[in-house]
């Protein structure tokens, strides 16, 4: 099964690259990731000011024991740009077929910083350059990171600084924040300034909560906390919406990122038009070796549908999302209960009684739909723990 892909004219041996984050903190780590099978990596974002990270900078959102959201208040790379340039050179020499993406953040008012780091990464040999317009903690208060990515003028101005400099040839990919009402407004601004592609998305700012026994906030930094960026599974639907909006407008090629935990998650982003996906949190939780399973899952999806290459299904889902007003207002479905699978647990009955239309009754330990009360909302189907309810199109 050929799962190789292409982004802005570069060949990727598979659609999976590491996002800019702790798994790409240095060249030794990236080397191990490449050996495990990752097609590429975005280096941890470079910044010219020294970085000193806080301790206790992570927190998690769990359902039972499963981590479904991950918060961080981590800053950017602890290595200097000069250290990175040497490491990038070595990585590209040792792994010429892997994709290495630079990532930089400068001051919103300092053109030189952006240009210097862009040239440094380009000369070291990166294939693409991400502009970090999206870190939601620490930097926005200094007018950087997500503060830039929430402002179309600044996003366009910085993109233009790099695109109008004739020395800079490396494709420029601004990385978007999901924490904005109209992400296409930023997409359009950077597209008009000449951006070659877009990466969507970075983390979403959250407060993770409190430990109710100690009354300490999470993460607890000396008794206090601050809003941090959420990544991981909970971010996936937000990221899908952002990618959907950006593919529609401005339509630049998108590298997708956010909550990708499996090959099947990746396929959903590909259906929306992203030929490459980036992964961070799942690697932080499970290690580089998850790449093998992710690649197999993409192949399995392709087998189900008889695809022999990835380009056969990239973008196939784009026509399937539309405006609310365009949806068929007369579309009708009715729940159908499978009497073999239904075990009479009453979950659907209670949900429909207290959150729906009182359209389910229990009869001899089976859920029975009262069709003339049912509005076809699908709540019973969503909550059924036995997979015993299907919504059948009328
Ligand atoms: C601990 C941590 C540090 C991160 N550092 C950076 C960074 O330096 N630059 C950047 O562009 N994104 C950074 N990110 C964001 C990730 O690159 C990615 O956009 C985000 O985590 C969503 O992907 P995921 O759900 O697969 O983790 C960081 C994320 C985490 C969890």
Describe the protein's architecture and organization.
The strands form six sheets. The protein has an eight-stranded parallel barrel, surrounded by eight helices. It has a four-stranded antiparallel sheet with strand order 5-6-14-11, with no helix packed on it. It has helices spanning 27-36, 81-94, 111-124, 146-149, 152-163, 183-192, 236-248, 263-271, 281-286, 290-305, 347-355, 379-383, and strands at residues 5-7, 10-12, 16-18, 40-42, 58-63, 66-72, 99-104, 128-132, 172-176, 198-200, 204-206, 210-211, 216-217, 228-231, 254-257, 276-279, 333-337, 360-363, 366-369, 389-393. The chain is α/β, with parallel strands linked by helices and 394 residues long. Helix content is 31%, strand content 21%. Helix 8 (263-271) packs across helix 10. It has two domains: 5-320, Aldolase class I (TIM Barrel, Alpha-Beta Barrel), CATH 3.20.20.70; 328-393, Alpha-Beta Plaits (2-Layer Sandwich), CATH 3.30.70.20. Flavin mononucleotide is lined by residues 19-22, 44-45, 70, 72, 74, 76, 103, 132, 135, 175, 202-203, 231-232, 235, 257-260, 279-281.
Summarize the topology:
Elements: E1 5-7, E2 10-12, E3 16-18, H1 27-36, E4 40-42, E5 58-63, E6 66-72, H2 81-94, E7 99-104, H3 111-124, E8 128-132, H4 146-149, H5 152-163, E9 172-176, H6 183-192, E10 198-200, E11 204-206, E12 210-211, E13 216-217, E14 228-231, H7 236-248, E15 254-257, H8 263-271, E16 276-279, H9 281-286, H10 290-305, E17 333-337, H11 347-355, E18 360-363, E19 366-369, H12 379-383, E20 389-393
Parallel strand pairs: 3-4, 3-16, 4-7, 7-8, 8-9, 9-10, 10-15, 15-16
Antiparallel strand pairs: 1-2, 5-6, 6-14, 11-14, 12-13, 17-20, 18-19
The structure holds flavin mononucleotide.
Flavin mononucleotide binds at residues 19-22, 44-45, 70, 72, 74, 76, 103, 132, 135, 175, 202-203, 231-232, 235, 257-260, 279-281.
């Amino acid at each position: 099964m050929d799962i190789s892909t292409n982004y802005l004219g570069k060949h990727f041996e598979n659609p999976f690259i590491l996002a800019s984050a702790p798994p790409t903190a240095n060249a030794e780590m990236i080397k191990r990731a490449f050996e495990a099978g990752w097609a590429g990596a975005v280096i941890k974002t470079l910044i010219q000011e020294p970085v000193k990270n806080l301790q206790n900078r992570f927190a998690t959102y769990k359902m039972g024991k499963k981590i479904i959201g991950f918060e961080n208040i981590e800053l950017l790379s602890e290595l200097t740009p000069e250290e990175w340039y040497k490491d990038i050179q070595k990585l590209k020499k040792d792994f010429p077929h892997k994709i290495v993406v630079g990532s930089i953040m400068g001051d919103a008012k300092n053109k030189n910083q952006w240009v210097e780091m862009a040239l440094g990464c380009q000369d070291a040999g990166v294939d693409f350059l991400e502009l970090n317009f999206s870190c939601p903690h620490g930097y926005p208060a200094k007018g950087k990171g997500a503060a830039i990515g929430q402002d179309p003028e600044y996003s366009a101005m910085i993109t233009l600084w790099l695109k109008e400099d004739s020395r800079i040839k490396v494709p420029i990919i601004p990385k978007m924040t999901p924490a904005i009402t109209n992400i296409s407004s930023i997409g359009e601004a950077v597209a008009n300034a000449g951006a070659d592609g877009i990466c969507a998305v970075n983390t979403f700012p959250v407060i993770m909560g409190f430990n109710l026994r100690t009354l300490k906030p999470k993460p607890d930094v000396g008794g206090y906390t601050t809003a941090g960026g959420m990544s991981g599974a909970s971010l996936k639907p937000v990221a899908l919406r952002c990618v959907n909006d950006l593919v529609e407008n401005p339509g630049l090629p998108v590298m997708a990122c956010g909550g990708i935990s499996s090959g099947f998650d990746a396929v959903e982003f590909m259906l929306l038009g992203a030929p490459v996906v980036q992964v961070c949190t799942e690697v932080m939780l499970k290690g580089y070796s998850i790449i093998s399973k992710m690649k197999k899952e993409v192949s399995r999806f392709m087998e189900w549908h008889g695809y022999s290459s990835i380009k056969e299904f990239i973008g196939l889902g784009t026509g399937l999302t539309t405006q609310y007003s365009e949806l068929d207002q007369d579309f009708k479905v009715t729940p159908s209960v499978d009497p073999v699978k239904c075990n009479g647990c009453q979950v659907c009955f209670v949900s429909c009684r207290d959150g729906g239309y009182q359209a389910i009754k229990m009869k001899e330990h089976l859920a029975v739909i009262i069709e003339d009360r049912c509005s076809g909302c699908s709540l019973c189907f969503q909550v059924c723990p036995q997979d015993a309810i299907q919504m059948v199109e009328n």
